[in-house]
Amino acid sequence: MPKQSAPQELAGIAPKLVEVTDEVLFGDVWERPGLSPRDRSLVTVSVLAALYRGEQLGYHLGVALDNGLTAEELSEAITHLAFYAGWPNAMTAITRLKQITDARDA
């Protein structure tokens, strides 16, 4: 999988945010050996879905699939979190997952 990076079009307005995203978040935190990229993706998707962070969720669902999670595993995680994070959050996340998997299948 290619290395993750902040959207470079944001560098003109927030160069430091892009820099620390690339260097600290993706260059350090995501590369730490304590969790696999697959596990980090599962945690990230779960938190984004639970907190209703839809703008970032789509990107990270794609990363999760690239990191080896299956659509079925992501669906199961989203179903599980519905009872802890709320039904609307889970329905939004599962709808986004369906859009992404449909686009990949097309």
Structure explained in plain terms:
By secondary structure, the chain is an all-alpha fold. Helices cover 69% and strands 0% of the residues. The protein has 5 helices and no strands. α2 packs antiparallel against α3 (54-66). The radius of gyration is 14 Å and the shape is globular. Pfam families: CMD.
Any idea what the shape is? globular
Q: What fraction of residues sit in β-strands?
A: under 5%
Largest sheet: none
Question: How many beta-strand elements?
Answer: 0
Question: Which class best fits the helix and strand makeup?
Answer: mainly alpha
SSE string: HHHHH
Protein name: Carboxymuconolactone decarboxylase family protein
Pfam families: CMD (PF02627)
Domain Carboxymuconolactone decarboxylase-like: 15-95
InterPro entries: 4CMD/NDH-1_regulator, AhpD-like, CMD-like
Tags for this model:
single chain, 106 residues, mainly alpha, globular
In short:
This protein is mostly helical. It contains five helices and no strands.
Write the topology of this structure.
Layout lengths: L14 H12 L10 H14 L3 H13 L4 H15 L1 H19 L1
